[in-house]
Amino acid sequence: MGLREMKKRQTRQTIAAQATRLFLRHGFDRVTIADVAAAAQVAKMTVTNYFPRKEDLALDLHEEFTGLLARTVARRAPGEPALAALRRAFLDAVDRHDPAIGFADPDFARMISASPALVARLRELHEEREDALASVLAEETAAAPDDPLPRLVAAQLGAVHRVLFQEAVRRTLAGESPDEIAAALNRSARTAFDLLTPSLAGYPHTA
User: Fold this and answer.
1) PANTHER family of this UniProt entry (predicted)?
2) Looking at the domain assignment, is residue 17 inside a domain?
3) Over the chain, what is the mean pLDDT?
């Protein structure tokens, strides 16, 4: 990484860190872009260049989040069904207490849940993640543009991840520890993926 790219990354990290600090202290809806710019000691335009939407200051992992399922499927071992790859990846993420599947600091979870704007943006991110997965499945199966099957499959797989994410947040807000949440998600995930196995165990079909 060159010096210029390193400085850009550092600036982005500083802006995101200052925004999170302000959001946790004052609430997302009460903090303005100007407040974040002042705290990070940058111009307001600099903030919007890095984060076009205010919600993305709070949900800074949105690119990683929306591409997670698609990347898991695209990078899976040859011959491995998509369902098996996603199941394995999710259970591994549970063991890591990965924020991408819903693990969060309780204060952060409360901040997200208290803001209608952030709740709506998170819903959009789940939809974008499902769309990305559908694109990978359509490409792998050479599906016709009017073939609904890749989107139907992505909708089912996306729904499992969305519900489990919401369950992690709910349990966090209820005061459960990360280990307790992990144990519950492990059980629920195995049940959910087992329910999909009869229909999706061999999809997409491989030679």
Assistant:
1) HTH-TYPE TRANSCRIPTIONAL REGULATOR BETI (PTHR30055:SF234), HTH-TYPE TRANSCRIPTIONAL REGULATOR RUTR (PTHR30055)
2) yes
3) 93
